[in-house]
Amino acid sequence: MKIGIFSGSFNPIHVGHLILANYIVEYTDIEEVWLLVSPLNPLKSVDELSDKYVRLEMTKLALEGYPKIKASDFEFDLPKPSYTINTLDALKVKYPEHDFTLVIGADNWAIFESWHETDKILENYKLKIYPRLGFRIKIPDRLKQRVETLDSPIIEVSSTFIREGIEAGKNMRPFLTENVYDYIIEKGLYKHYKNEL
Q1: Which residues pair with 36 in a beta bridge?
Q2: Contact 168, 194 (CB under 8 A)
Q3: Of 2, 10, 60, 186, which has fewest CB within 10 angstroms of its CB?
Q4: Predicted local confidence at residue 79, as pLDDT
Q5: CATH of the domain at 71
Q6: Can you tell me the distance from the alpha carbon of 161 to that of 179, in angstroms, rounded to the nearest whole number?
Q7: What is the pTM of this model?
Q8: Which is it for strands 99-105 and 126-130: parallel, antiparallel or unpaired?
């Protein structure tokens, strides 16, 4: 099976993540997208992240009704920090029957050369790059067999924007699935919020 690997903090998962993942399974050759919840992104500090199991639970809640999109804790037991090449190689070992494609945004593609062992990633895996506002996607000719640009909708919603909005007491319900928003409010995540329930 062709699996798209979309790794992220998902702190919290929002409608933009769902729109992108759903676009990929409906409009490309990818049959399933696995959302890998990162326990610790090398580019983020520990202080920025909610508990990994809380983020995994929110991801599972958001994916109810999306059978082609799966929440995964695969990186939880891998060495920290979670380097993409190590994750992809470990997935290939555990699931040799699957063909894995890495899904990243144009913002990450712009700094891809700074990632750990990028040559190895490009040699062994395909990439699908989704557009982000303000970033032009340039793919060298030598990589065009392995790297593809997606024509997916650009949804400029960020988890940071949602966290800050909730902390400021704003109603952020439209940016999240109903059950994830209710979970955040019930658990008192992201500090302060107005009592809307």
Answers
A1: 7, 72
A2: no
A3: 186
A4: 86
A5: 3.40.50.620
A6: 19
A7: 0.90
A8: parallel
